[in-house]
Amino acid sequence: MTDALLDVYPRGTRRDDDGRLLLGGCDAGGLAREHGTPAYVVVEDDLRAQARAYVSAFRALAPDAHVSFASKAFPCTAILRIAREEGLGCDVASGGELALALNAGFAPADVHLHGNAKSEAELAAAVEHGLRQVVLDGVDDAERLARIAAERGRVQAVAIRVTPDVRGDTHDGISTGQADSKFGLGVDDARSLIDRIGTMPSLRLEGLHFHVGSQLLELDVFRRAVAAVAPLAGAVEELNLGGGLGVAYLRDEVARLPSVEAYAREKVSAVRELVGDRIRIADEPGRSLVGRAGVTLYTVQTVKRNVRTWVGVDGGMADNLRPMLYGARYEAQIVDRFPAGEGPDPGEPCRIVGKHCESSDVVADAVLPDPRPGDVLVTPVTGAYGHAMANVYNGVPRPPVVLVGDGRSRVVVRRERVDELWGRDVG
Ligand SMILES: Cc1ncc(COP(=O)(O)O)c(C=O)c1O
Hints:
Elements: H1 2-6, E1 14-15, E2 21-23, E3 26-27, H2 28-35, E4 39-43, H3 44-61, E5 66-70, H4 77-85, E6 89-92, H5 95-103, E7 111-113, H6 120-129, E8 133-136, H7 139-151, E9 156-161, H8 187-197, E10 203-209, H9 220-229, E11 238-240, H10 260-274, E12 280-283, H11 287-290, E13 294-305, E14 309-313, H12 322-326, E15 333-334, E16 348-353, E17 362-368, E18 376-380, E19 401-405, E20 408-413, H13 418-421
Parallel strand pairs: 4-19, 5-6, 5-12, 6-7, 7-8, 8-9, 9-10, 10-11, 11-12, 14-16
Antiparallel strand pairs: 1-2, 2-3, 4-13, 13-14, 13-18, 15-18, 16-17, 19-20
Helix pairs in contact: 3-10, 6-7, 9-10
The structure holds pyridoxal-5'-phosphate (PLP).
Pyridoxal-5'-phosphate binds at residues 70, 73, 91, 114, 211, 214, 242-245, 284-288.
């Protein structure tokens, strides 16, 4: 099973002859000793390869396609810079993400702003920076933005987020395309807003947008969404099809994970068949761009046996909320006794748990060979929505982000210090 297992690790990951895991040419145990744990480790070559795969897959089919990184998946200057260097635009969902994108060197003309409840300040920042586009989530958004732009003597390009009323096969918490969604406008309401924007001289309607959900492993939902918005498409020059492609978190998901090329082909062909050649295609992947590039390293603190074997590590729900939010499941291995060969992993079934005061603070269920305190444990595919959703519950400082490649590592986000945890507490 080793090959399928390595397929959930970043490209180029190896197990050496002594059973040690090598990430970006670096010994994972050595990374843990050098940078401490928990730590997010990102393999730069994997990230760049995936970014290039996205740009080339879309451009091969639609040369003027505009592909952006949904920065919410991994908001960090170094990651955003790599996305920019590889030719991606940037999708931001708040004033904070906008500031980070600009800090990472994105030109405002390559950034678009999302949000179902944007503030006056966020809309004003979008207009003042001259962002490529503001994606309107409703009528209030449009009216407010029109006033803000008019007050500044500007014309702001906009898109309308449409709720296509389709449902992909994913967790409710990350499903957004159904009619009962807080995001966007149904087709009829979107049609009314199109007419309304026609009477607003400070807004220029450029596009339509949908995002049906995340962690999607089946592609047909995108065609259904394109079909739903197609009747409106005559009013715009661009159709943004959101993100949504899933990742394989577990080795037995690898075989059913669509490639980036298949995803681009499905989206582009649906647009060409249902809308036509005239329209520019935009896309904004997040999870599938950065997910596989990242892993998390932990150190085992305790091993306890009662009705099961509990392996307690020095992180958990504060650095990875996904198990708690969505019941998400992960692989986990010990970095210097990494399983080799065919067949099931050797060892005993363990529940790996975090250090936080919640019974739902589960990191993963995995078979581990004789786990002991001091072992360094790795969970793969934590590049997306890990660092992004990290919090400081129980006063645990947030982990660093370490970029690795060519056998070298560098810290791009340092570990939070304890004195920073309550730095805003004015007593
Ligand atoms: C509007 C929008 N676009 C793109 C994305 C990125 O989606 P994914 O990470 O599934 O590619 C999201 C994720 O929540 C989103 O809300």
